[in-house]
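Reopening: structure tokens for the NAP complex, inputs below.
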Amino acid sequence: MEKLLHDKVAVVTGAAQGIGLEIARTLHHHGARVVLADLDEEATVRAAEQIGGPAGGCSGAVCNVTSEEQMQALVADTVDTYGRLDLFVNNAGITRDASLKKMQVSDFDAVITVHLRGTWLGIREASAVMREQKSGSIVNISSLSGKAGNPGQTNYSAAKAGIVGLTKAAAKEVAHHNVRINAVQPGLIRTPMTAAMPPEIFAQREADVPMKRAGEPSEVAGAVVFLGSELSSYITGTVIEVGGGRYM
Ligand code: NAP
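Re-run output (same inputs, fresh job):
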């Protein structure tokens, strides 16, 4: 049987670790050639080697998603190397948690810039190629924090809610070119980002999940494979929650 992403070319930002790395691994497993993009060159190349390396259709690229030039180079280099671009995953993210009382303007700006400017740049550059191709899928990683709002995350919740509005507006602009844009909202997922949380807060959040456990990065990756494949060919502008029922 042909693999779900046979012959497709995908880019994943923030792919050196965590959810992005697992998305890249899973897309590759389902037949895609994948470019992993992240800030740190060594970590990114190492991650790409783990999955299969350039000989296996898997390469690493340095890209700070907040840089217009680097995002343009990422998309152009992908098309130069692999000849097309079918799936672009805006996954890179950071947190700078603090209460409103303590949060600095720099914490707010940093989070908004990586998530919103980064995702917007990724959408703009990837969709320019895809509209010419007359096909493509863009998946933006939002968060359930953008649906429910988390205290201590006013910056992050605003950014992740903003990604939903951005997804829908952009999806409307490019739908008639057969380019689809959707968002995924993970809940509590076990990654280096959440490993930084105090264990008691992590346990408390886990207890709030109807399925009574945190999710794994592979469970987010499954939704991305679906949105990147022909199985979702008539789905655009939507948000898929991967949260074990949290905030349903
Ligand atoms: P993670 O383990 O911290 O991985 C994020 C990756 O993005 C890191 O490699 C990071 O590099 C990279 N990155 C940060 N800023 C970047 C930039 N400007 N340009 C390019 N890459 C950048 O986080 P994760 O938990 O896998 O999260 C991945 C995505 O899922 C994020 O958008 C996050 O908000 C979202 N999410 C996560 C959860 C969760 O529970 N983990 C839940 C909902 C949504 P450095 O390490 O060098 O900073």
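The beta strands are 9-13, 33-38, 58-62, 87-90, 136-141, 179-186, 239-242. Residues 9-242 form a domain with the Rossmann fold fold (CATH 3.40.50.720). Marking as resolved unless the reporter disagrees.
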